[in-house]
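Incident log, support desk, overnight shift.

02:14 A customer reports that sequence design results differ from what the structure should imply. Their input is reproduced verbatim below. On-call engineer (initials T.W.) acknowledged and began investigating.
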């Protein structure tokens, strides 16, 4: 049996790690491109690794030689920031993330990689009418540099699509899930602050588990070219309020009767929820509330030694 070779840029990042592990579990041989070598325990199996940064002017062909798929999850930004990730270098940010991304797409096509998937973002939609549900036919209105460069990446990839090069972009919402040892996920600091009795400001947003992002990619690699090439797909599961997260944490930590108030629910009447119906039509089934509860409980369990000391 021949196993496909899949290349993942940004594979050592928070979202990239889910993608790499999903591909390994699906039987792919994976090559990872990243600025820093993976840590022990990052992945569930062995990977080949190429040290490189987005925007490097190098020969990318060794990474793509013999590969069937390319998943571009790399993004050059200030640590911890997507929106505002340009810092004080907006022009360099644009060059690295637009031209650097296009260079990778062209290298993949030149190497006869059959399929390329680009991780874009809900930020390409920008400001929309209050309460409007966002589907893939919604006109993008990127109003941050982050959204602008991702939208440019989508368009540059789509321009390369032809009968030999299947291209797809995923507009991904906020991603949650556990981090590897030594790194922190997005919700543990929130839970820690609440457990310490600090005031939590109301906030809500759409979320999807990293595992479900990985599953979306696997489905797109399995789908016919006609079903996915040149198209974009929203990837979003459910609306999550901070009060939802902390209510689960409250129960899991056994603090239901203690005086740590939950924040009030945020006002979401004007929020733009994303529809993932197009992806679900291909068979995608995200984990929903069950996976949210399981994940938060696991985060609390991992914190117990620290909170008990």
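02:41 Re-run completed on a clean worker. Output:
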């Amino acid at each position: 049996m021949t196993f496909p070779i899949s290349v993942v840029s940004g594979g050592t990042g928070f979202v990239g790690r889910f993608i790499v592990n999903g591909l390994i579990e699906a039987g792919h041989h994976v090559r990872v491109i990243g600025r820093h070598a993976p840590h022990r325990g990052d992945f569930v199996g062995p990977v080949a690794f190429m040290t490189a940064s987005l925007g490097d002017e190098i020969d990318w062909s060794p990474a793509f030689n013999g590969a069937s798929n390319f998943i571009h999850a790399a993004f050059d930004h200030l640590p911890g920031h997507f929106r505002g990730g340009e810092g004080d270098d907006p022009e360099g940010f644009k060059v690295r993330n637009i031209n650097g991304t296009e260079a990778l797409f062209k290298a993949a096509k030149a190497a006869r990689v059959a399929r390329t998937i680009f991780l874009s973002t809900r930020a390409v939609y920008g400001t929309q009418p209050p309460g409007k549900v966002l589907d893939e036919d919604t006109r993008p209105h990127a109003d941050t540099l982050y959204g602008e460069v991702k939208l440019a990446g989508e368009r540059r990839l789509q321009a390369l699509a032809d009968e030999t090069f299947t291209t797809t972009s995923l507009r991904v919402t906020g991603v949650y899930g556990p981090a590897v040892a030594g790194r922190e996920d997005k919700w543990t600091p929130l839970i820690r602050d609440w457990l310490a009795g600090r005031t939590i400001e109301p906030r809500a947003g759409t979320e999807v588990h990293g595992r479900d992002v990985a599953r979306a990619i696997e489905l797109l690699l399995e789908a016919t070219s006609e079903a996915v090439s040149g198209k974009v797909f929203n990837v979003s599961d459910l609306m999550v309020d901070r009060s939802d997260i902390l209510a689960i944490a409250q129960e899991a930590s056994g603090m239901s009767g203690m005086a740590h108030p939950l924040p009030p629910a945020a006002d979401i009447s004007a929020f733009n929820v994303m529809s993932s119906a197009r992806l679900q039509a291909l068979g995608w089934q995200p984990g929903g509330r069950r996976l949210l509860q399981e994940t938060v409980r696991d985060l609390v369990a991992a914190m117990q030694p620290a909170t008990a000391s």
